Amino acid sequence: MDGEGGNRRRALPRHSAHLKKPADVTDSIDACANLREATMLVSVIIPLYNTEKYIGACLASVLSQTHTDLEVIVVDDGSTDGGAAIAEGIADERIRVDRGPNRGVSAARNRGLDLARGEIVAFLDADDIWYPDKLSEQISVLQSDRDVVAVGAVFQYLSRDGRRLLSQVGQDARDADARERMQRGQLSPFPIDSCLIAWADTVRNAGGFDESLPVVEDIDLMSRLALAGSVATVMRPLGAYRLHSESLSAREHARVKMFMRFVEQRATARLEGRPTPDLESFVSAYRPTRAQRWQDGAARRFRDAGVLAMEGRYVRATTLCALALAARPSYTLRRIAMRSPVRRTPGAVAHGGN
Q1: Most confident among 49-53, 165-169, 249-253 (mean pLDDT)
Q2: Full 3-state SS string of the chain
Q3: d(CA 247, CA 215)
Q4: 198-239 per-position pLDDT tens digit
């Protein structure tokens, strides 16, 4: 990549062919690549707000990473519980806790970005977890392709009590229009909040998270990162995402959809070189069409069905899923496919925009 973030990557040392056999040259290059990965500082940014129930497991999953060159920046966003104290009480010098007033999750992530010293930044919500090889596998992808600016992965779901579920989320983005769909704010190929790693300079140059957006700020950031380069997905589970009924998107589904449509309109206008809409004007004039209301209803039922299934309430979950399927068959089938198990295969990586 010759654009944003490209100056952060250095070529591997050159080796003279007459000094070593070709196999030895390859071994030496592989060793250099492994050494560079092992010594590359990753800044893990965790926004924290009243999640003391989960922060311990979250941090334990970060500290157990096979890639150990980390700084873990926990940004306490004005919590009123004991989550920040739990983080401060963990005896690991890689953890830093930054306390501040409540300003919202985007401001907390941007604060972490300001404090980050790493070449790579990784984002993680305080109620989610990573599997041990998550960072190592993603860093390998990020380093192997100069065009890639960000990497995600397939994530499994967790129940509220921490049980790992079979359903998964994460999308192969190899189809030709994937990058454009991301640029237009139409595609979130993986759980960005807890899955994304990216070159730190690329995220900064893209403007970080938009603090004026109370929701879907992650999709908005992805639309700007996709303008800077390709996005890759590791197509096997590298973490787990907690979906529970207390989440904002479950409680305020219609509001989330409104902001998603704003992000899409703004991203599309940016991509096409047109003036971008103003958020306040968009919200005041927003009136969903009948087709949009049908689609939103299907999406809400499908999400509710997922939560109910996680809670073991399968009869009600099946009913809601059937209603979603009747209302929007193509949407519902696509969402079911995204949550179906992904077979673990060596080197399974999907690149967006190729």
Answers
A1: 49-53
A2: CCCCCHHHCCCCCCCCCCCCCHHHHHHHHHHHHHHHHHCCCEEEEEEECCCHHHHHHHHHHHHCCCCCCEEEEEEEECCCCCHHHHHHCCCCCCEEEEEECCCCHHHHHHHHHHHCCCCEEEECCCCCEECCCHHHHHHHHHHHCCCEEEEEEEEEEECCCCCEEEEEECCCCCCCCHHHHHHCCCCCCCCHHHHCEEEHHHHHHCCCCCCCCCCCHHHHHHHHHHHHCEEEEEEEEEEEEECCCCCHHHHCHHHHHHHHHHHHHHHHHHHCCCCCCCHHHHHHHCCCCHHHHHHHHHHHHHHHHHHHHHCCCHHHHHHHHHHHHHHCHHHHHHHHHHHCCCCCCCCCEEEECC
A3: 11
A4: 999 999 999 999 999 999 999 999 999 999 999 999 999 999
Length of the chain: 354
Query: For residue 344, what are its two tokens?
Result: 């673990």
Tokens of 311: 């809670």
